[in-house]
Design goal:
Length: about 280
């Protein structure tokens, strides 16, 4: 089987997908990034970490019997709850409407950590789809990732909330790479402006750089694919959003290990061309 090269092919790369504001497209990104990585012949699992409100399974038309709640309760192993999704991507369902999953205990986190370690043998990438916001559950779930992708739309309140999450993640772990993905953008210029706003604020107030993961276009086909419960990269591969997911997956797969600088170079080159220094978000 042809595989993309990475320094250690046995190392599981965990990518957490998070946001400040809800409804910015995290679950859609998690699923489609997962499927796009699978198309590049990587072994991919998507962990639904929107505990208690998970909907990865619903978006894929799956009806799992077991979910993460059973793993955290010690009733099932993670292998026993894996569900086959599109293109061989395995889904780890979160369960829905479960009060006890809304605030995980240290024992739960330890169990989840061990379960993820166990996945390292079977997968190249684990995408962690988190809930939105700045609750402990969401921040802890985001910190499961070697890489964290903060998704934002152009909406000013989404940008301000993205900055709030970046600030908290940064405080919790100053060395962690934090990336930004702009979803629902009209074009590259619009997306660059949003990234630059966040980056200016992060440099000025947090004294750190952000990684630019690019953008996914606003595309009515996303809704069309959602209505038939299929990933857009599989259902409508020629759409603008699908192109964006393929570019994102190719960039990620080309990065040299979990903390490589490959993408940062791309980001710097892109922004060398952009002259105007935008205003940082208000909450900096
Ligand atoms: N690039 C896009 N273009 C058009 N609609 C989108 C796009 N990304 C997401 N959406 C829509 O936004 C809504 C929220 O997406 P979802 O992935 O559930 O967000 P979240 O997981 O952040 O709550 C969905 O109805 C989805 O169809
Ligand atoms: Mg979601």
């Amino acid at each position: 089987m042809i595989r993309n090269t990475r320094p250690d092919p046995n190392q599981l790369v965990t990518i957490a997908v998070t946001s400040g504001k809800g409804g910015v497209g995290k679950t859609n990104v998690s699923i489609n990034l997962g499927v796009a990585l699978a198309r590049l012949r990587h072994r991919v699992a998507v962990l639904d970490a929107d505990f208690g409100l998970g909907n990865v399974d619903v978006m894929l038309g799956l009806a799992p019997t077991w979910h993460l709640g059973h793993v955290l309760a010690g009733e099932k192993t993670i292998d026993e709850i894996l569900v086959a999704g599109p293109l061989g991507v395995k889904i780890i369902p979160a369960g829905s409407g479960m009060q006890q999953l809304t605030a995980l205990s240290p024992t739960h986190w330890a169990r989840l950590g061990r379960a993820i370690e166990h996945l390292g043998d079977a997968f190249d990438y684990l995408i962690v789809d988190t809930g939105a916001g700045v609750s402990d559950n969401v921040l802890d779930a985001a910190r499961l990732g070697d890489r964290v992708l903060v998704v934002t739309s152009l909406d000013p309140s989404a940008v301000v909330d993205a900055y709030a999450v970046i600030k908290l993640l940064s405080a919790a772990d100053p060395g962690r790479e934090i990336g930004v993905l702009v979803n629902n953008a009209r074009d590259l210029i619009e997306a660059q402006l949003v990234f630059a706003q966040l980056e200016v604020a992060a440099r000025r107030f947090l004294k750190r750089r952000l990684t630019n993961y690019g953008f996914i276009a606003h595309d009515p086909s996303v809704r069309e694919a959602m209505l038939v419960q299929r990933p857009i990269v599989d259902h409508l591969p020629q759409s603008a959003a699908s192109r964006g997911f393929r570019i994102l997956a190719t960039r990620l797969a080309g990065m040299d290990g979990p903390h490589g600088a490959g993408l940062r170079l791309v980001a710097s080159a892109q922004f060398a061309a952009s002259a105007a220094a935008p205003e940082p978000p208000r909450c900096a």
